[in-house]
Amino acid sequence: MIDSQTIINRFLKYVSFDTQSSEENDRELPSTPGQMVLARFLAEELKSLGLTDVSLDAQGYVMGTLPATAGITGSTVGFIAHMDTSPEASGKDVKPLLVRNYDGKDILLNRDKKILFSTEDFPEVKKYRGQDILFTDGTTLLGADDKAGVAAIVTALEYFRDHPEIPHGTLRVGFTPDEETGRSSSAFDVAKFGADFAYTVDGGELGGLEYENFNADNPVITFHGRSVHTGSAKGKMKNALTLAMEWQQALPAGEKPEYTEGYEGFFHVHKITGDVETCKIHMLIRDHDKKHFEERKAFLDRLAAFLNEKYGAGSVEVEHRDMYFNMGEKIRDGHMAVVELAKEAMEAVGVTPSVDPIRGGTDGARLSWRGLPCPNLFTGGANFHGRFEYLPIPSLVKACETVVEIGKRGYRI
């Protein structure tokens, strides 16, 4: 149904734009100028495909409408993807490597730098033996998260344009900045978007369908010390770094990302900065269960109280930063038909749905809590946020075909 070369060419065009977002710039949206460059390109592309109400605002949000086939009324379905790529790896000068008919063996991504894609490190890739797969040259990420989602949506719109005999309801599309920094949905105009429900096309491997995700808190813990010359420090110095290490050691040993899976939550220290006077720990608290989530936050508060009693009032400060909540609470409250529609669409194109909780979050989580039910669909990619990312082409094609099928059926919900 979908021409694979067309969607490959479109995806490769998108990854030529450097849209890596920045966690350091929390004042502007988008956080990097490259995202706006791609946003302008996409707005023009949507116009060229015949969409109406195409808009691009000052913060980089692109929206457009594919009007319903004449005579069709019903629900308006939305599809959303983000334009930025992860701050964790460079997205500049991406050099895609298309491996035809993959043989299941190790791949030399970069001869000069001796960068090897090892099947021992990533054995999951072997299930795509015999398929065409996009990799990189090992120096950047690929950008399938989420330019594969953008490509799937736009190619589906093009398919509807080229096949006017296929009936569909009103479709709304939205492309957003700064999903990777957690700010994408903050300025997303749900009322302007005007969909009755939507899907983020921002998932991983073939068949993925998610409507549950973590509750998320990104607390920052600040430790206040007192620096005294080491020669006369006895009984006077209070080393903020020592307090931070004690904090880390007090966290439950088995409740870390490297020891958990499925619905299991965790505590994660991902950044430590500072010196004797002041030290900061940046953490992630994650749990699918809201009660357990709040208990984890309370545990940190009790730990801070304990250390303040031990080292003096004000030694430790905890600033909780709730980021998003489990969209499952909203989806299960009268919106499971949206999930069933996605399952039916996948099965119609020969894909077996794999419904699993997201061990992370999506724009859909925040949007679901803002009144727009928004499960997450697969894009086909794997190993996101790093230089060993890859994208099996047949999986990307199936992602696009799934969008088409939802577009054909969604107005009936």
UniProtKB/TrEMBL annotation:
Pfam families: M20_dimer (PF07687), Peptidase_M20 (PF01546). One of its GO terms (cellular component) is cytosol. Zn(2+) 2 binds at D145, E180, H385. SUPFAM superfamilies: Bacterial exopeptidase dimerisation domain, Zn-dependent exopeptidases. InterPro entries: ArgE/DapE_CS, Bact_exopeptidase_dim_dom, Peptidase_M20, Peptidase_M20_dimer, Peptidase_M20B. It catalyses: Release of the N-terminal residue from a tripeptide. It is an enzyme of class 3 (hydrolase). Zn(2+) 1 binds at H82, D145, D202. GO terms for biological process: peptide metabolic process; proteolysis. GO terms for molecular function: metallopeptidase activity; tripeptide aminopeptidase activity; zinc ion binding. Residues 212-313 form the Peptidase M20 dimerisation domain. The active site is at D84, E179 (proton acceptor). Its cofactor is Zn(2+). Its EC number is 3.4.11.4. Binds 2 Zn(2+) ions per subunit. Gene3D superfamilies: 3.30.70.360, Zn peptidases. Keywords: Aminopeptidase, Hydrolase, Metal-binding, Metalloprotease, Protease, Zinc. Signal peptide: none annotated. Belongs to the peptidase M20B family. This is Peptidase T. It comes from Acidaminococcus fermentans.
